[in-house]
Write a structure and sequence with these properties.
Helix content is 49%, strand content 20%. It has 407 residues and is of the alpha+beta class. A six-stranded antiparallel sheet has the order 3-2-1-6-5-4. Strand 8 and strand 9 form a beta hairpin.
Amino acid sequence: MSRDQAPGLLTADRELALLRELIRAASSGPGVEPLAAAAARMITAATATDVCFVHVLDDTERSLTLTGATPPFDSQVGKIRLPLGQGVSGWVASHRKPVVIIADKESDPRYRPFESLRGSDFTSMVSVPMETDPGGLVGVLNVHTVAQRDFEDRDVELLTVIGRLIAGAMHQARLHRQLVARERAHENFVEQVIEAQEMERRRLAGDIHDGISQRLVTLSYRLDAASRAIGDGRDDLSTAAEQLALARELVALTLGEARAAIGGLRPPVLDDLGLAGGLASLARSIPQVAVDVDLADTRLPDHVELALYRIAQECLQNVVKHSQASNARLTFAVEPGDSGDVARLEIVDNGVGFDRFENPLGGDEMGGYGLLSMAERADIVGGRLNIRSRPGSGTTVTATIPLPSPN
């Protein structure tokens, strides 16, 4: 349809028909991608535009992902990502304002071409934010035309209304997807925890049987030999002394193994030194990486201290195993929050980093059980884990846990 044929996108009847179709699609199910695809097809057909793209805000809320598109661009769904602030869509998402480009979009400094989306084939475009209450920004809706078209204020208003309608259903679909993913991750975590518990029990049983038990048996033999030597007369006192010295060595080794086994269940350092001392000791135990510390000497409830200590322990192990870092910084502080004090633990490394899109929380490539374990430990005590990383820019892991109000 040319500019002369269409002073506006829709007649009142077609507008009403489109809104009915969108409402029907929004009520059909909780899937984000099917809803975005259906919306793109409906909008393109109803507005006589040539292509429609639906970009949805990622769960990280820092970039957009192409989630719905009209053919043949539906093959690019999930492959096009745009950080907030970049490109026309990223600008619209950041500023929450629509953009209309009638012609020569390549001269617009906000425009960023994607070869796979064939931007040079299209002349005019409208980009509007998809927003809803209380969800806020959900994504960005774009329509393009091959022929030049003068989009009017009414056209932009209509697309904004459509964006808000889609956003409401999209927000619910995203919440449903997150809930399903969280339940699935929780189920996997429970299975892994049970398996880890069984492995830990077997390891402790093996340590006790092969180490502590065997040393105690040998210790008994040494003491028996010393007793016999003493009973045989003064000439054998040197033999008794030798046996007792060996017995003392066994006692020291056995005590060390017993302490290590107990430490696997609960770190004694927390009882002896508190969380700050325990974290400092943990940082010193990582010789492969220089770990700077900034630790508040504040005692917390036992369950919170244990959760933060285990998160730090797992995180530093990941730094050693995966990051190739030479330096890290471990920070612990108690800060005021909106509804009370918040414990904040942060570990920053200067390692290779990783792509959060390619290796999401729980991904096997980055030792997913460790990442998921840290997130679940924070969640169990009412907190939250945030992981920020980019290839070549290191990784930052932050755990925040609200603290109970003092009685």
